[in-house]
Amino acid sequence: MAPASTHGEHFAEVVLVRHGQTDWNVSRIIQGRIDQELNETGRQQATKVARRLSEEAKPAAVYSSDLKRASETAQTIAAHCCVSDSDLVIDRALTERHGGLFQGWTFDDAKRSEAYKVFARGGRDQEIPGGGESLDQLSERLVPRLNAIAEKHKGERVVVVSHEAVIEEICRHADPTISVGRKIPNTSISVVHISGSDGRWILEKFGDAGHLIGDGFPHSTL
Fold first, then answer.
1. For the chain, which end, N or C, has fewer CB atoms within 10 Å of the first or last residue's CB respectively?
2. In DSSP terms, which residues pair with 90 in a beta bridge?
3. In the beta sheet, which residues pair with residue 193?
């Protein structure tokens, strides 16, 4: 993995890590903001990605969504990478996309519902029924926060532990041509170089789960 200096001292290297597996991932239930804990497989995955990151350049900080599945993954990474408690930041701006009406539904049930069919036909400004976020709203929440993190950590590496929809939107902002059909496995790594001062984003890596070779992953859900 290339160091942040590859793209100049004004860029931060932001390493995006999806949280480890939960029981709802296995059952294909849409989690959204519902606060599920890691299962045993998820804890093992968190340890594997933490060991991988500990063998690379030390991050200046670890930022995490406030949800348990992300914060537990982040704590494991911080411990293996010798990141101090003061540099482990729980940040609600990095929380998962709100799944609205469909939170707690199985993905298959959601796809069969008329409400989901109507939602799926909409564009980026289409809000999820029941108080969920549109993709535009998700981007408006994430982009300023990532720019602020990058501005604070110019020339440094930071780890951001978050969720599938969040990481997908961040990577899509960096490279609008990216295929949204590609998977972001649990504890996979994506890398974006961000210059917070001028808004330049460069996608380097997407959904790399090389540290989990041989492990199985659930299908993607919100």
1. N
2. 64
3. 13, 202
Annotated binding site for substrate: 18-25, 69
- Is residue 96 flagged as an active site residue? yes
7 included as an active-site residue: no
pLDDT digits (tens, 9 = 90+) for 120-168: 888 999 999 999 999 999 999 999 999 999 999 999 999 999 999 999 9
Active-site pick, 72, 96, 156, 164: 96
Catalytic residue among 7, 13, 19, 153: 19
Domain ranges of the chain: 4-106+138-212
CATH topology (fold) of 4-106+138-212: Rossmann fold (3.40.50)
Cα separation of 21 and 110, whole Å?
21
DSSP state for residue 106 in the 8-state scheme: B
Residue carrying structure tokens 């890691």: 38
Task: Give the annotated binding-site residues.
Answer: 18-25, 69
Please write the tens of the pLDDT for every residue from 99-127. 999 999 999 999 999 999 888 888 999 99
Question: 140 CB contacts (<8 Å, ≥6 apart)?
Answer: none
